[in-house]
Amino acid sequence: MARPSPNRDTAPPVQRLRLRYAKRGRLRFSSHRDFQRALERALRRADVPMAYSAGFSPHPKVSYANSAPTGVASEAEYVELGVAQRCDPVEVCRALDEALPPGLDVVEVVEARTSDFANRLEASVWRVELPQVSLTDAAAAISTLLAADEVLVERMTKSGLRTFNARGAVIRAEASCAPDDSDCAILTLVVRHGTPSVRPDDILSALRRVADLVPPKPSRVTRLAQGPLDESGTVVMDPLAQDRASETGPR
């Protein structure tokens, strides 16, 4: 005999909320699935009135957008929630941040007033710290990469080994020196999203190929931002700005 379906409100969401959260410290090693489980627990602890999908096994209406790879820190991860009752975004931000473990930090929550949010995430800004790499070597490697028309790299994906042009996704790249460590070069990369998505480790593979840059220690990578590109096509803008701009308009 089939079990009865759980008693969930499967009506369409009355409000959509967009969250920006950060992965910091040791929590950068949490996988996307780890965060999904942590968020679902936090939603229950915070008593967020989630809307649920229909069917025998309803799931909370949660959509994830372009998550950073495991092992990478981030200041700009995004999630959208569908809720069954109208909520104060500021209160949801506070409650979820308290319910999540330190290092998975909810930075901002806004009401979603626009559509096609995922399409707005056109590019990311990455900070790549290279311990024991001099600024001179890093800057020379970046110049060589930018001067190339194409740099092919390989990566194992779910579909098997893929070869793709890592140089084509790099919009802007520059090297600087850590303020407190002259023996640590910092790369700031603006990388366009695509299929397959070019990740910071792919850029490092490209630098190894064209400039023989091999950091003696593992790099430390942080996504600083992701969002739409400005009119010049070189600056990443805030993807939540359109929702904030619509706050005084019709719901």
Helix content: 10-25%
Question: Regarding CATH, which class of the largest domain?
Answer: Alpha Beta
Summed up, the domain count is 2
Could you give the distance between the termini? 45 Å
Question: CATH superfamily name of the largest domain?
Answer: Pseudouridine synthase I, catalytic domain, N-terminal subdomain
How many strand elements?
10
- Describe the global form: elongated
Q: Look at the structure and give the mean pLDDT.
A: 92
Please tell me how large the radius of gyration is: 21 Å
Contiguous runs where pLDDT drops below 50 for at least 5 residues: 1-7
Overview of this protein structure:
It is a single chain. With 251 residues, the protein is α+β, with helices and mostly antiparallel strands. The chain folds into 2 domains: 15-119, Pseudouridine synthase I, catalytic domain, N-terminal subdomain (Alpha-Beta Plaits, 2-Layer Sandwich); 123-227, Alpha-Beta Plaits (2-Layer Sandwich). The protein has helices spanning 32-45, 89-99, 117-120, 135-147, 200-211, 241-245; strands at 15-23, 62-65, 73-83, 104-111, 123-131, 152-157, 160-165, 170-178, 181-192, 220-227. The strands form 2 sheets. Strands 1, 2, 3, 4, 5, 8, 9 and 10 form an 8-stranded mixed β-sheet that branches. A two-stranded antiparallel sheet has the order 6-7. A hairpin with a 2-residue loop joins strand 8 (170-178) and strand 9. Helix 1 packs across helix 2 and helix 4 (135-147) crosses helix 5. The longest helix has 14 residues, at 32-45.
